[in-house]
Amino acid sequence: MDDKKKNIKDFIQTLSLSIPVIQIDEGIDMFKVDIDRAILYLYMPGALRREEENNYPVIHIDYDQLCSAPEKIINRLKGQHGLGKRFYARATVVARIDKRVALAFQEEHHLQSALPGKYRYGLFYQGDLVSVAIFSGGRIMRQERLGYRSFELIRFCHKSDTLIVGGLSKLLKAFIKDFSPQDIMTYADRDWSHNHSSLQTIGFEIIKVVAPQRFAIVGKQRFSVTTEEQQVDYYIENKGSLKLKLVL
Question: Each residue of 35-46: pLDDT tens digit?
Fold first, then answer.
């Protein structure tokens, strides 16, 4: 068996220990996996995105992520299914955290690269850091009105296999109290969210669908690219992202 296909099948087997796998359809360059309440597309190196069904949430996972962060993917899926540990934000304490702590937490629990940001907030449950939100500095938006400042929520994640109900709302409230922004914008990965985002339930509105982004894969590392580069194993292109804004 091809090593890449074997790695994908091993991932599906591991996933099935946590979430029921209903059906697997093996294609030439991807696997379609029906799991409880969602559909996964698992792509071989360089494969193109497929159209997705609209009756279930659809998640697109590339081979490089499957190899580099299988536990993070499975834990995120478990969180979406309400599995694992579950706490309410009212049982947590919010506090500012330093760059070192924020980066280490992201590297352990976030699928994308860790970013330091300018302002960093964490939720603590019984002294344990369980969720972080990373914000940019403020940007003056002169086209809006005098003194209008916009900030970006650049990273947010929970501790793996943990869901903090109301956690992001609590982190946002703390940030808003400290900095009084006129709006907060962010991006949602369409590989996981398609044309909607859970952020809409707390007041964010979609203002733009951002075009797909191209990446170069070197080993197990992913790099953003705009032109052809040397010594690249293969290229992938995601489904783009949703740009959202919370107006305050």
Answer: 988 899 999 998
Q: What is the spatial distance between Cα 234 and Cα 237, in angstroms, rounded to a whole number?
A: 10
Tens digits of residue pLDDT in 111-142: 988 999 999 999 999 999 999 999 999 999 88
171: nearest Cα among 236, 117, 113, 208: 117
Angle between helices 3-16 and 70-80 (to 10 degrees): 40
pTM (2 d.p.): 0.91
Residue ranges, CATH 3.40.960, the chain: 3-80
What CATH number has the domain spanning 3-80?
A: 3.40.960
Which letter does DSSP use for residue 211 in this model?
A: P
Query: What residues does 43 pair with on adjacent strands?
Result: 30, 62
Strand partners, 242: 188, 209
112: its two tokens: 């994308």
The residue to which tokens 């090593």 are assigned: 3
